[in-house]
Structures are given as structure tokens and as C-alpha cells.
Specification:
The protein has one domain: Na+/H+ antiporter like fold. Helix content is 77%, strand content 0%. It has 13 helices and no strands. The chain has helices at residues 2-32, 37-56, 67-84, 87-91, 95-103, 107-119, 124-146, 159-172, 179-203, 212-237, 241-251, 258-265, 270-295. It holds the Pfam family Mem_trans.
Amino acid sequence: MEAQGLLIERIFLTVFPLVAIVTVGFIYARRYKPDMNVANQINIDVFVPALIFAVLSAESFDLIKYQSLAIGAAIVVLGSGLLLLPFCRLFKVHPKTFIPPMMFSNSGNLGIPLIVLAFGEHALQAAVVLFLVENVLHFTVGIYILDHKTRLLNLLRMPMIVATILGLVWSGFNLPIPESVHTFIDMLGQIAIPLMLFALGVRMTSVDFSNWRIGTYSAVLCPLSGIAIALLCQQFLQLDPVQLAYLVVFGALPPAVLNYMIAERYNQEPHQVASIVLLGNMGSLIFIPLTLAFVL
């Protein structure tokens, strides 16, 4: 009984701060209707790259240590799309509308803070690796799904990718970083996570429930498919128990808000995608605690 109480307390301490920040963003946006475009752009161009570089350039970062985890993350992303592809005909929804949100999860806004809060600060490196794998696939495979004419070389212009390359170079060659510079970059990076969560709350005010049926199906299928693929990966990846827990939590994450923004840009039924994203993130209030109870 005591062990169950400690588990419930740990899950609450993990989930509550995330939900609270998202709720603050939602309430603030309902009252003041802020324009988050500039803040989101700065986060993507400055704060998130700073976080990535600060983590990857650290002396303690070992890329080889997370090699199997990165492979597992890629399999979870791609495997979820393949597993759920037959449901497009069942739900009478276009694959370009349904499949990307099922593949590309909220590994930034929700995933990084969730994994850090659930497993401790030492899990930040793994959380960033999972985020990078998902993000790179989103801006390559995900964009290609919507537009076969896209130029993948444009990926190299993204600040997050540049920060990743520089961080790995710094870590790989053990290049020194002055303490003052490291503190400066680290402080910039610390802005990224709470701003992501706040922006998620703001974004939730701009979508509706007009396509609630497909959104409800997605809220269940997205985490179940991700968890199933993650557990299947373990049969041949043989991850240690901690990294397996990271991968299962990664698989349980809801659709990324970015799916809605990209669908809007490519005019791919953005209202349906909005419902999938919104209800998927609402459904995570049920699936995330259950997943934490499973892995902790």
C-alpha cells in the first residue's frame, strides 16, 4: 500500500507541473488572446537550439550510449505510421491528414519535461535525443508525406539541426567552453521547456471539436501504437530497463502541435488535424499517468 502511495505521488509530481503550465497558458490565452507567433519563432530559432547545444556539448554526453535508443525512437515514429495506415480506410480519412499526427509526437513541448520530471535531470540527454530523432524525421519524412517536391537540404538551415551538429562536434572533440559562455547558453536553453508548455496551452484555444470522432479515435490509437512498437523493439534492441522506460514514455506521447501548424501551411485539412491534436493531448491526461505507472 505504501509503495502504491509513493508511485501515485511520483506520477502526480511529474504530471501536475506540466498540466499546470499548459493550463496557465490556456487561461491566459482565453482572456487576453496573445499572439504567440513571435515567441514560438524565437523559441524554435534561439531557445531550443541553445538547449540542444548545451546538452550535446556537455562533457558527459555519450552519443554511443544512446545509439540503440535513437534507433528505437525512429522505429516507433515510422512503425506507428505503418501500423495505423489501414485505419485510414476504416475511418474514411485521408492518410496525409491522419498518419503524420500518429507518427510525430509531442516530444518537445511535453516529452522533454515529462521525462526529466519522471526520471530526473540525468534523463535530459536521453529526452533531447528522442526529441531530435522525432524532429528530424518530422521535417524530412513528415514534410515529404505532404509534399513530395520538398527539398530535404533545407533541413541543414534549421537552427536546431545546426545546434545538433555543433553540439556533437564539441562533445566528440572534447572542445572546451568557457564557464561564462556555457552558463549563458544554458540559461537561454532553460527558457525553452516552460515556454513550450505555455505555448501548447495557448494553441489549444484555437482549435475546435468539429471533428471529435476522428480526434477521439486518434487519442486512443496514437499512444497505443507507440507503446506497442516500443515494446516490440525491445525484442531485438535489448535496451536496458531505464532506456526502455524512456522509449515507452516516448511512444505514449500525444500528437505534436506542430502537426496542426504544418497541415495549415500545406492546406491539408487543418481543422481535422486540429481536432486530432487537441483531443490527443487531452487524452494524454489519461494515458501518460497510466504509462508512468507501467514503467516506474
